[in-house]
Amino acid sequence: MTAIVGITHHGVVHIGGDSAGVSGYVVHPRADAKVFTTGAYAFGFTTSFRMGQLIRWAWTPPEPPTGDLDRFMATTFVDGVRDCLKAGGWASKENERETGGVFLVGVAGRLFYVDSDYQIGESAQGYNAVGSGDEVALGALYATARTRMSPRRRLQIALEAAERFNGNVRGPFAYVSTPAGGSPTHVQG
């Protein structure tokens, strides 16, 4: 289920996502977007709508630091996500190891990947994708990387490619952008 794509461009993080809710062979396009903004952050999630709802509505992310963003994301930020998911009854624990879900998060002009084991990663390319359509979307992002296309158009092409070649990805597509130090914007369609 899902294709979530993200790009950094001139200090702004752009994230786009599809609308598929998938159960077995049934696909339900949903009205509740998988991409959203909260404060200085832009998010795009896969794994579970419940996880995304908890991060969006039950948690207020901490203000990003002016200092070491890598350390902050790997500790303060991810500890907040873990607490939120545990409190919401969504996180799981097996053999003393906690797991959550997968999502992209943009903050301070940087795009991070959060894996199900709560590791924080950042792609060297300045773009990334998660979900079942990630490989197709990454190929499209790579193919458009040296063009003069707008970030929004690149995201759209990546999502359309994932929809074309992955049965678990469906439009309509939603997009969010968070300028570094600015106000977030949200666009549907």
Quick structural gist:
With 189 residues, this protein is of the alpha+beta class. The chain contains 4 helices and 14 strands.
Strand-residue fraction? 25-35%
Mean pLDDT: 93
Which fold name is given in CATH as the topology?
A: Glutamine Phosphoribosylpyrophosphate, subunit 1, domain 1
Radius of gyration: 15 Å
Any idea how many domains?
1
Query: Which CATH architecture?
Result: 4-Layer Sandwich
Structural class by helix and strand composition = alpha+beta
Question: Superfamily at the CATH H level?
Answer: Aminohydrolase, N-terminal nucleophile (Ntn) domain
Q: Sheet bearing the most strands, described?
A: 5 strands, antiparallel
Helix count from the secondary structure assignment: 4
Structure description:
Helices cover 28% and strands 32% of the residues. By secondary structure, the chain is α+β, with helices and mostly antiparallel strands. The chain has a single domain (4-188), classed as Glutamine Phosphoribosylpyrophosphate, subunit 1, domain 1. The strands form four sheets. The protein has a five-stranded antiparallel beta sheet with strand order 12-1-2-13-14, with helices on one face. The radius of gyration is 15 Å and the shape is globular. The mean pLDDT is 93.
Features:
ATP-dependent protease HslVU (ClpYQ), peptidase subunit; 14 strands; Ntn_hydrolases_N; five-stranded antiparallel β-sheet; 189 residues; alpha+beta; Glutamine Phosphoribosylpyrophosphate, subunit 1, domain 1; 4 helices
